[in-house]
């Protein structure tokens, strides 16, 4: 199964890249993610719960990131399993700057085994696309929060007082101060997403409905017409009786 697509995020490429490499952000962008843990350099394990009928189940998996070229590109190698089957996949993510926005392009290929393989490629592909679309929407929301935070902080911060001219001795002392040691290597982290912060399966379902209606604005009117026809038909049949 192959899948590819693109999504535009209203933020600079550097900000989007930072978000994609923040485990806190990723844990809240994956539908049904309950836990995400860093187990090595650029390697993660997680547990997600999917509620879409075709691929329903609890999945545990591992993701490794390779070919990292910030802030442009990286490659994902993933494997997962559940009671329904196993999934192995390879994908790429590319970011392109476009007038202050970022075009995120993704592509990948997956192999499905076990009971999942009997579901059918078209059903799995359709469910996967909807999950990816909802993940990207959640990512865009997380990025928007990151962009707005510095602006709000700057607006609330008091103006800094004008510093008096420092004596020459103080300037010399500062100049002779040894350079600070490099920051320590960040520790490996585990993120457990509280239930109220998870991108729940029902959120994905509502997102699918919203996407369907936005792409087919005539669809609700067909439903209304069908219901009206059904109601009028029932009332007519009752009168004829």
Describe the structure.
The chain has helices at residues 13-20, 23-27, 121-156, 168-176, 201-215, 219-240; strands at residues 2-9, 33-40, 43-50, 57-69, 73-82, 85-98, 101-114, 190-192. It is of the alpha+beta class. The chain has an eight-stranded antiparallel beta sheet with strand order 1-7-6-5-4-3-2-8. Helix 1 (13-20) crosses helix 3 (121-156). The chain starts with a strand and ends with a helix. Mean pLDDT is 75; it is low at 216-220.
Q: Layout of helices and strands, plus pairs?
A:
Layout lengths: L1 E8 L3 H8 L2 H5 L5 E8 L2 E8 L6 E13 L3 E10 L2 E14 L2 E14 L6 H36 L11 H9 L13 E3 L8 H15 L3 H22 L1
Antiparallel strand pairs: 1-7, 2-3, 2-8, 3-4, 4-5, 5-6, 6-7
- Can you write the helix and strand succession as a string? EHHEEEEEEHHEHH
Cα radius of gyration in angstroms: 25 Å
Low-confidence stretches: 216-220
pLDDT averaged residue by residue: 75
Q: How much helical structure, as a percent, in the residues? A: 25-40%
Shape assignment: globular
Hey, roughly how much beta strand do the residues contain? 25-35%
Termini separation comes to 55 Å
Structural class: alpha+beta
> Largest sheet at a glance?
8 strands, antiparallel
Total of DSSP H or I helical runs spanning 4+ residues? 6
Number of DSSP E strands? 8
Strand order of the largest sheet: 1-7-6-5-4-3-2-8
């Amino acid at each position: 199964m192959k899948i590819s697509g693109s999504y535009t995020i209203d933020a600079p490429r550097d900000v989007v890249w930072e978000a994609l490499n923040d485990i806190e952000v990723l844990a809240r962008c994956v539908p049904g993610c309950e836990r995400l843990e860093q187990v090595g350099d650029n390697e993660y394990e997680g547990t997600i719960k999917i509620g879409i009928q075709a691929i329903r189940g609890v999945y545990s998996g591992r993701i490794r990131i390779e070919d990292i070229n910030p802030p442009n590109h990286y490659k994902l190698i993933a494997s997962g399993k559940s009671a329904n089957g196993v999934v192995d996949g390879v994908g790429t993510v590319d970011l392109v700057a476009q007038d202050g926005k970022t075009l995120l392009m993704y592509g990948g290929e997956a192999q499905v085994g076990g009971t999942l393989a009997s579901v059918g490629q078209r059903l799995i592909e359709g469910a996967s696309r909807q999950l990816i679309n909802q993940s990207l929407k959640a990512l865009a929301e997380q990025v928007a929060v990151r962009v707005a935070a510095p602006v709000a902080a700057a607006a609330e911060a008091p103006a800094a007082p004008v510093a008096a001219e420092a004596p020459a001795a103080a300037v010399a002392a500062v100049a002779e101060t040894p350079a600070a040691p490099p920051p320590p290597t960040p520790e490996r982290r585990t993120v457990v997403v509280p239930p109220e912060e998870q991108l729940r399966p029902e959120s994905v379902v509502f997102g699918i409905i919203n996407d369907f209606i936005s792409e087919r604005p005539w669809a609700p009117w067909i439903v209304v017409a069908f219901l009206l026809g059904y109601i009028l038909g029932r009332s007519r049949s009752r009168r004829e009786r």
